[in-house]
Fold each of these.
Amino acid sequence: MKPHYVAEMVAIGLMVLASGVVSGQTYPSRPVRIVTSQPGGGNDLATRLVAQELAGPLGQQVIVENRPSGVVIVEAVAKAAPDGYTLLLYSDGLWLLPLMQKVPYDPVKDLAPITLVGRTPHVLVVHPSLPVKSVKDLIALAKARPGVLNYGGSVPSSSGNLTAELFKSMAGVNIVGINYKGNGQAVIAVMAGEVHLLFGTAASVAPQLKSGRLRGLAVTFAQPSALAPGLPTVAASGLPGFEAGTTYATFVPANTPAAIIGLLNRALVSVLSRGETKSKLLDNGIEAVTSSPEQLAATISGEVIRMGKVIRDTGIGVN
């Protein structure tokens, strides 16, 4: 799918909110399900925490339904009845994947946004032998040795790889990507000195940072993160304007009544704003974030534009 849907995102989000005359007063009258990816990952962890907390405000059981792959997950929700009983909680792969390969869904036309749920930053780490102590040092070294430095990653479309490619694009440097079967193997490769650096999740590199087996340079959020205490941001330490991370959000099928979307938004924002919920998410490497449906639509639109350029410039995917 081409990124033709970028300009439509905000407009369709607003249309969804303006449409529908079904009252949310009798909703929900039975259990609600939230569809997400396989157990164990960030999507699943966030979904289970949200489901546990959401049952109270809704007054109904909230069931987590795991599906094997992103495409299957999104397609299942997109084809579900637009009655508010099937939700989707998924990461930014939902709207970035269509920029990299053909998918049987349109993230704008087939889904209606509810709210942001959280964000996970990446941490830029290097092997301790690399003679750099800051992002500014790393950029200078990479420019002095074009094509010599390399970064560890997993599949090209992964969040860590996309963050690395965004870094390369904004810094104007040539750092070679070397892919492994997963983020865990990439972390091991950096510790072993097989590759020079990595944009890893805070949870995956925290133990190695504490032990000194890796050196942390910066966190990829626009502001310092409690998930990477003591580290500056990439933007403040050498690359102004840089921001990246994994974003989690919730959706319902398109044409879900506005009253139900509004009710779900209020319930989700309420539970995500609780100190206890924030602490639980933080313990699992996620910073709680909330939004209105319109704000989520605008966030997606901006990310599609920004990361779409990186994806096109690097040739990631088949489109």
Amino acid sequence: MKYFKTGNTSRGFYPFVFLLAILISSAVFQSCEQSNIFSDKDDVELGEQFDKEIKANPNEFPMLEGHQDIKDYIKGMGTEILASPKIKKRNIYPYTFQVVNDTIVNAFCTPGGFVYVYTGLMKFVDNEATLAGVVGHEIAHAERRHVTQRLTAYYGVSALLGFILGGNPSVLAEVAANLFVGLAFLKNSRDDETEADYYSIQYLKTTKWYPGGITFFFDKIKEEQRQKGSTPGDLDRLLSTHPLPADRISFVNKELAKISPKPDPTSGLYTDEYQKIKAKVPSRK
């Protein structure tokens, strides 16, 4: 009886939980390649931590100041895409759309639906459908939970233990801080990119925009590379975090060919409307 009164049961309990965690983790990974030990609530909390890190690093992420019309435009586009019936987590994730004032051609999304669009991207594209295709692609990363899937695969049992034992209440903050170093959270796999492309098409099918808008983005990147003989510096980060192999482009074209009736690539672009807003996008000094 003295053994139990002194609280030494924990010596037998924790190894048991450790073993249980390993067994659970092994079973999960064996049963589903896209397993995810994080909950939707965890995704939101992790995204909030990322947002804090981003706002605390204005040299790396200079958020657009003023220009409310530009911010409202991006928010309105994101909101319209979120109305697609293919979006499953619009009432689960907070979904915010923010603008980074930098010449880098890029956009990214953190867990929980925190989408960031660079002014460099807005300057780079030529019509609304292209930008909507990219924004839809980023939304898909959140919906498909790509970052926390990668975290599950990478941290596995240790992260699972952190949640089960509850020994570290700041585990999400620590994970966010560790990932933020080197921008590791931005690096998507080829499979993630292909899946995000697929869902971008599905989302835009129910909007006013041409569903294959992202193909114009691909074409513009390839043309820039052809003209300059290499990848321009302002595209480096984009391609390091969003790989663009030939099979990804081929996949998108095949998916568009499956749509019936076939969408017209000359309609739903809203080029004139976009050129008006594009002219208002500031150039970073």
